[in-house]
Amino acid sequence: MRRCFELALKGLGLTQTNPLVGCVIVHGDTIIGEGYHHEFGGPHAEVIAIRSVADHSLLPESTLYVNLEPCVHYGKTPPCSTLVLQKGIRKVVISNKDPFPSVNGRGVAQLQQAGVEVRTGVLVEEGYRLNRRFFGYHLRKRPYVILKWARTIDGFIDLVRGPDDPIGTNWITDDVSRTLVHKWRAEETGVMVGTNTIIADNPMLNIRRWGGNNPVRITADRYGRLPGHVHILDGTQETIVFTGVTGKYCGRTRCIRVDPSYQIGDFLEELYSEKILSILVEGGAGLLHSFLDSGIWDEARVFTGKLKFSQGIPAPRMEAKPDEIYHFRDTVLDIFRNHAHAFH
């Protein structure tokens, strides 16, 4: 099953609203086939694994391991459960059942009704962790929320900007950390920043330091404050702007009309309807505090650099101890998880 997890992770950032799935086929003590879901709309892991088996006469005597329940419905591809039955596979081992309404236990039921021996719940917590975005999206009806910020060693997220200060980021972290953030962007469906951050920093919010798919850029510009020259409106990638001003944005920028009463939960509800599976929230301080105060977040990734500002905008403070700590060249990374939203 852990090999299934390893394979599934290769699809991170490429499967859109689909889950990360790996599949391994074992005959006796030998792996005879394996595969993973490469991209949205492409063949599922079970299909690729079965195709990779050189001698299909071995399949009836083999065990198929897969980290998520085989699908039982026709979507962009035929149902995997039907293929398993057609190939005569008699034993299937599963980590997690699929919460997607068109599956949700039906795949297991179909296999069992056909006489297949099915075992579920293997390394179930690790399976939840692997597909935390997918489970969060379907069970909570909102994107999986990852908060990210960098703070100086004396606790500031930025300097206080004046109207005549130059536009651009006051970097706190080292080059390795910045590249890691681009990797993170490639792993999530969307990246969100506040209007003040766009005006002050003018970020591109792309993955120029990494490979893969650019995320959908997201911001809330309720009153139409964004100038037309900012990178987020340059049309180079999909962009969503929550705004109360219509007719200002065009091209690859989609406007979702909101009113001043909108709260974090309302924005996430809209993003859920836009099929945004996960978002990386990169600031600024006001937007981060809004998520933290609402309690609607799943992970927080906090960089601490060696730089000192002495004064400036205070960074959000986490009361809990970090779940993980990593050390880079000149930076410490703390990972916090919101255990109130853990899957059980």
Give a structural overview:
The chain is an alpha/beta fold and 344 residues long. The protein folds into 2 domains: 2-133, Cytidine Deaminase, domain 2, CATH 3.40.140; 142-341, Dihydrofolate Reductase, subunit A (3-Layer(aba) Sandwich). Helix content is 25%, strand content 24%. The strands form 3 sheets. Strands 11-10-9-8-12-6-13-16-15 form a 9-stranded mixed beta sheet, sandwiched between helices. A 5-stranded mixed beta sheet has the order 2-1-3-4-5. A two-stranded antiparallel ribbon has the order 7-14. Helix 3 packs parallel to helix 4 (106-113). The model has no long low-confidence stretch (mean pLDDT 93).
Which features characterize this protein?
alpha/beta; Dihydrofolate Reductase, subunit A; 16 strands; 5-stranded mixed beta sheet; 344 residues; 10 helices; Cytidine Deaminase, domain 2
